[in-house]
């Protein structure tokens, strides 16, 4: 993956494509293809590449983590991403990006708001200015009846530059929790 950060995207893409033509199941190339697809904003292609890596090595945690993160970035609950995030969490219990993804997925699944709050708080230690993380933390805190914490987290998310669709929801939640 280091080579990806050093090579320009088109050159890296060509190298990865060539590798996958000669060896379609080569996991390092599949992971690189996924990362390049993510860089281009093509989460569907990225997920396909990561799922191919998982098909080859079902316990390959880096692919599980990337699928979990991609699933958390989607607006709807993603059961497969949720399951993979939980599996990856056993191997990477201190990964802040994975904690964020799992916290968001737990929140979307409903019912375990305290777990969602715990995961998102853990992630927020390493990512204190992550607007999306703060939004989901605030919403989970409100659901778990922590009105003060929820309001503070939502306000911080707005100050951190929350994207417009979530900002509208945050403002609505703030107005409703007075």
| CATH architecture classification name of the largest domain | Alpha Horseshoe
CATH superfamily of the largest domain: Tetratricopeptide repeat domain
- Estimate the mean pLDDT confidence: 93
How many structural domains? 2
Task: Write up this protein.
- With 178 residues, the protein is mainly α.
- The chain folds into two domains: 1-58, no CATH class; 82-178, Alpha Horseshoe (Serine Threonine Protein Phosphatase 5, Tetratricopeptide repeat), CATH 1.25.40.
- It is 78% helix and 0% strand.
- It has eleven helices and no strands.
- It has helices at residues 2-6, 9-22, 27-39, 43-56, 61-72, 79-91, 96-109, 113-126, 131-143, 147-159, 164-176.
- α3 (27-39) packs antiparallel against α4, α7 runs antiparallel to α8 (113-126) and α10 (147-159) packs antiparallel against α11 (164-176).
- It is elongated, with a radius of gyration of 18 Å.
- It starts with a helix and ends with a helix.
- The model has no long low-confidence stretch (mean pLDDT 93).
Topology diagram in text:
Layout: H1 2-6, H2 9-22, H3 27-39, H4 43-56, H5 61-72, H6 79-91, H7 96-109, H8 113-126, H9 131-143, H10 147-159, H11 164-176
């Amino acid at each position: 993956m280091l080579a990806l950060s050093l090579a320009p995207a088109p050159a890296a893409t060509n190298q990865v494509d060539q590798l996958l033509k000669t060896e379609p199941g080569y996991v390092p190339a599949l992971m690189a293809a996924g990362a390049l697809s993510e860089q281009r904003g093509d989460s569907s292609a990225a997920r396909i590449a990561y799922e191919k890596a998982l098909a080859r090595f079902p316990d390959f945690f880096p692919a599980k983590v990337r699928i979990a993160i991609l699933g958390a970035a989607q607006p709807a609950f993603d059961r497969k991403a949720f399951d993979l995030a939980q599996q990856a969490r056993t191997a990477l219990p201190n990964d802040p990006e994975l904690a964020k993804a799992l916290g968001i997925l737990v929140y979307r699944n409903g019912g375990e708001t305290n777990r969602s709050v715990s995961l998102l708080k853990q992630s927020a230690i390493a990512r204190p200015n992550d607007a999306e993380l703060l939004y989901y933390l605030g919403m989970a805190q409100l659901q778990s009846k922590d009105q003060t914490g929820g309001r503070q987290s939502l306000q911080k998310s707005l100050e951190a530059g929350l994207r417009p669709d979530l900002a509208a929801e945050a403002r609505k939640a703030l107005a409703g929790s007075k």
